[in-house]
Amino acid sequence: MKEFINYVLQFGNLNKQQTDFILSKAKTLELHKDDYFSEAGKIPKHVGFLLEGVIRFCYYNNKGEEITHSFIDENNFVSDQQKFEAQMVASDYVQAVTHCKLLVFSKKDWDEIGNTIVGWDAIIGLITKNCLLKAIERRSPLVSEDATTRYLSFIEQFPGLVNRVPLSHVASYLGITQQSLSRIRRNIR
Q1: Which of 2, 49, 96, 117 pairs as cysteine with 31 (C-beta 3.0–4.6 A)?
Q2: Do residues 77 and 47 make contact, with C-beta atoms less than 8 angstroms apart?
Q3: For residues 54 and 165, is the Cβ–Cβ distance under 8 A?
Q4: Are 187 and 116 found together in one domain?
Q5: Shared-domain flag, residues 47 and 13
């Protein structure tokens, strides 16, 4: 809980009464490896904050191949925010890669926080902007770099993650085959 409040306080000021109110709306959710936090074709039910574990966002392309387009690790928000806010059907799967523990907020509770705490929407706006900038920073090099450089960048951006997630997900994220990833890993040892 402390990690969540510390994270939020980076983006705005809240007093103890406000943080207590926010925490009163949070519930703890545990996901086992491969469980879905949110599924394509369904309306996202929660916005979450990841306390433990790793989550990935993925979709299936027109060839039926599973494509991982982002990873979320501890002390970050997990949300298909746009679809959650609009209560629209999601196009991505949000899946636990490892056992995960999250603080989650239902749409009703999330809206109640926004309607009760002055400035909450501004804080969430800054958090969302920060998350988008991080995602762009992480994805942009994947377009122009060769596979080895992309892998080395991945290791730099997500230290320790390569040992926690299946290599098939890492390869998909990098846009290469698992065989290519194995070759790259052998060559850089």
Answers
A1: 96
A2: yes
A3: yes
A4: no
A5: yes
Q: 168 and 121 in one domain?
A: no
**12 and 85 both lie in a single domain:** yes
Beginning with the edge strand found earlier in the chain, give each strand of the sheet holding 46-52 in spatial order. 27-31, 100-106, 46-52, 76-78
Give the residue numbers spanning the domain of 119.
Answer: 2-140
- Is the CB of residue 153 less than 8 Å from the CB of residue 141? yes
| Each residue's pLDDT tens digit, 9-27 | 999 999 999 999 999 999 9
Return the biggest CA–CA distance within the chain. Answer: 56
Question: Among residues 50, 173, 174, which one has the least CA distance to residue 100?
Answer: 50
Nearest CA to 72 out of 91, 89, 49, 90 is that of 49
**pLDDT tens across 116-138, in order?**
999 999 999 999 898 888 877 76
Q: Give the integer Cα–Cα distance in Å for 127 and 45.
A: 19
Return the structure tokens found at 126: 């800054």
Q: Are residues 83 and 107 in the same domain?
A: yes
CB 138 within 8 A of CB 71: no
Question: Within this chain, do residues 113 and 187 fall inside the same structural domain, yes or no?
Answer: no
Residue 53 exposed, middle or buried by CB count within 10 Å (0-12, 13-18, 19+): buried
Number of structural domains (the chain) is 2
